[in-house]
Each structure stands twice: as C-alpha cells, then as structure tokens.
Design brief:
Low-confidence stretches: 1-58
Helix content: 10-25%
Largest sheet: 6 strands, antiparallel
Strand order of the largest sheet: 1-4-5-8-7-6
Shape: globular
Structural class: alpha+beta
Number of domains: 2
Number of helices: 1
Mean pLDDT: 80
CATH class of the largest domain: Mainly Beta
Order of helices and strands: HEEEEEEEEEE
Distance between the termini: 106 Å
Length: 206
C-alpha cells in the first residue's frame, strides 16, 4: 500500500509536465504565426502602388487665366483720389507665374487690364521703350501715383524685373485721375487680375 501511493504522485507530475510543454509549444507556434502574418502585412503595405506619396501641389495653384481685356468700373467719391503708394513684384516658381502688386491708399479704384502692341506715355504720347516682347497695360481710374503735394509716390522710369515672364515695369501715365502702369513680358499671353484689401495684383503666367 505504501509503495503504490509513492508511485502515483510521480506519474501525475510527469503527466502535468507533458501537458505544460504541449501548451507552451502551441503558444509559441501561435506567436510565430501571428508575427509572420504581421510581417507579411507590413511588406504588402510598403510595396502597395496605390498608396499616395503625398499631397498634390497642382491643387493649390489657382486658375483663372485669360488673354482678353478685363474691365472693372467703380464709382469712387473724389476728392480725395485713391493713391497708389507702392509697386511690389515677386515670382512663384511652384505655380509658374510672376506677380505685380499695386498698394492703394483709400478705396480701390476701377481698372482696365489688357495687352497693347506698344507702351505710350500718358500724356506725352511718346513710346516708352522697355524690356520685353509683349506688353500688358493696367489703367486705374480714379487713381494717382503722387501725393497731394505733387511728390511721386511710385518709382519713376523703367525698372527691370528679371523674372521668368515679368521682364520690366514702368509708370506709363499719371494724368487727370488716371494712373497707367505697363508690364514688359517675355512673350507671355496669359494673365489674371485680382484684389486683396488695399491692393490690386496682376499675375502673368510662364
């Protein structure tokens, strides 16, 4: 009786040990299988040709280009006449256009923008020679490029820009409430005009 009772616990312990080994083996196999599945999934994602590389820059480039004449008429109570206080230029390589900005003190005037065959000074009537092969003219009305004292508020003469499309610009006229600004272009055919608070801008495409 004593010998039988001593052998029984040894057999039970052996059975429990074998069961524990079997459970551990199954657990390790499951872990290896899950890890392999995750690795395969990661590899499939990394080579998926439909995954976008990033946001498209073309969606952020505005449209609205035109080749004809743009005319905006406004009734502005004068005096005082709106004064153009500065001309600023810049280039946007990402969207391939150059910009000229006219800062305005007072209400925004009306304007006409269009291509001309040559730039004529107002009121001299003389041709203004400036860099470029095509010319875009901006006429602001009512507006002036000088202070009440007569001191010019805009740069005089012809100024080279040296941008891909905007080659030069000049104040072509400041006479009787009409301000004319000319752009010399490197052969461009498309532009757009827009407004922001206190300014009017013209873009030329290249």
């Amino acid at each position: 009786m004593h010998q039988t009772m001593s052998r029984f616990p040894v057999a039970a312990l052996a059975t429990i040990a074998l069961a524990a080994l079997a459970i551990a083996s199954c657990s390790n196999a499951s872990s290896r299988s899950a890890g392999a599945a995750r690795t395969a999934s990661a590899r499939a994602t990394s080579v998926n040709p439909t995954t976008p590389a990033g946001p498209s820059t073309s969606a952020s480039c505005p449209a609205g280009w035109r080749a004809g004449t743009t005319a905006v008429t406004r009734k502005v109570a004068v005096p005082p006449v709106p004064v153009a206080t500065a001309i600023r230029i810049g280039s946007h390589n990402d969207c391939r256009f150059d910009r000229l900005v006219i800062d305005i003190s007072g209400p925004l005037p009306g304007y006409t923008v269009g291509f001309v065959s040559k730039v004529i000074g107002d009121a001299s009537g003389k041709t203004i020679t400036m860099p470029g092969t095509r010319y875009l003219e901006i006429r602001l009305n009512p507006a002036q490029g000088h202070a009440a004292s007569g001191t010019p508020s805009l740069p005089t003469g012809v100024h080279s820009a040296g941008y891909p499309m905007l080659a030069s610009y000049a104040v072509a006229g400041d006479f009787e409430g009409v301000l004319t600004i000319a752009l010399g272009l490197a052969g461009g055919t498309r532009y757009r005009v827009g407004e922001l608070p206190g300014r009017i801008y013209v873009d030329v495409s290249w």
